[in-house]
Amino acid sequence: MKNLKNALLLKQLYQLKQLGYKYTSVTPYKDEEQDLRLPDTLASLEKQAMECHLCELSKTRHKAVFGEGDPNAEIMFIGEAPGTMEDSAGKPFVGRSGELLTKMIENVLHIPRSDVYITNVVKCRPPNNETPTPTQAHTCQPYLMKQIALIRPKLIVTLGATAYHYLTGDDTEISKVRGTLHKQNDYTVIPTYHPSYLLRNPSAKKEVFDDLLKVKELMGK
After folding, report:
1. Which positions ≥6 away from 50 have C-beta within 8 Å?
2. Helix (H, G, I), strand (E, B) or coil at 76
3. What does the radius of gyration of the chain's CA atoms come to, in whole angstroms?
4. Residue 206's closest CA among 196, 215, 193, 216?
5. What residue ranges in the chain does DSSP mark as E strands?
6. Residue 163's closest CA among 212, 124, 121, 207?
7. Of 44, 46, 118, 124, which one is least surrounded by beta carbons within 10 A?
8. Are strands 68-69 and 117-120 parallel, antiparallel or unpaired?
9. Which residues pair with 189 in a beta bridge?
10. Are β-strands 187-192 and 75-79 bridged in parallel, bridged antiparallel, or unpaired?
11. Can you give the pLDDT at residue 33?
12. Closest among 12, 25, 94 to 53, alpha carbons compared
């Protein structure tokens, strides 16, 4: 919530600067104000995220990509950011990476993709599919954490280093932590490689297969 408040404050200060102010005694937001609370339903949270303009990614996106799947899912997959096809469709993982993720879920976990919930660290596509900057990721983080709080998954599979880092704060290389279990709050995090990495490095599919077998075992699937 602090990140969201800081982003809103910074936005208003930039607006004041554009109006010609060099110094101001205006207090844009007070701690006791309650209008910074995020909605308590996924539908309302999605609506707010779709209309969000807190960072520069909102200027270049076509559609914000909030997430999709079972709102009561026991398993949640978190990627890095939307790509070109996701930005156009407004849905996560719809390209080749999405096809591979679907196969991973259905062929290894033996459940429909619709039974899990899928989202990303940031909800808007970074230009040229670049890795989200810390500012972009931290600005969007309140949305992700609220999604987790509302869905209440038992297990979260982070896809790639970026998702693992921003969810746990650990910057250990993904190759060294993939497949390990990390208890956090009321859920367990298990990091693995991003499907796009597997498209470039097919030999790593065996490792992801092993990671998903752990997920299957943990969930009793």
Report:
1. 63, 64, 66
2. strand
3. 18
4. 193
5. 68-69, 75-79, 117-120, 155-159, 182-184, 187-192
6. 121
7. 44
8. antiparallel
9. 156, 182
10. unpaired
11. 46
12. 12
33 found inside a domain: no
Domain that holds residue 119: 2-23+40-219
Give dist(CA 34, CA 36) in Å, integer: 5
State the CATH number of the domain containing residue 61: 3.40.470.10
In a domain, 86, yes or no: yes
The DSSP line for 82-118 is --HHHHHHTSSS-SHHHHHHHHHIIIII-S-GGGSEE
> 102, 85, 42: which is closest to 67 by C-alpha?
42
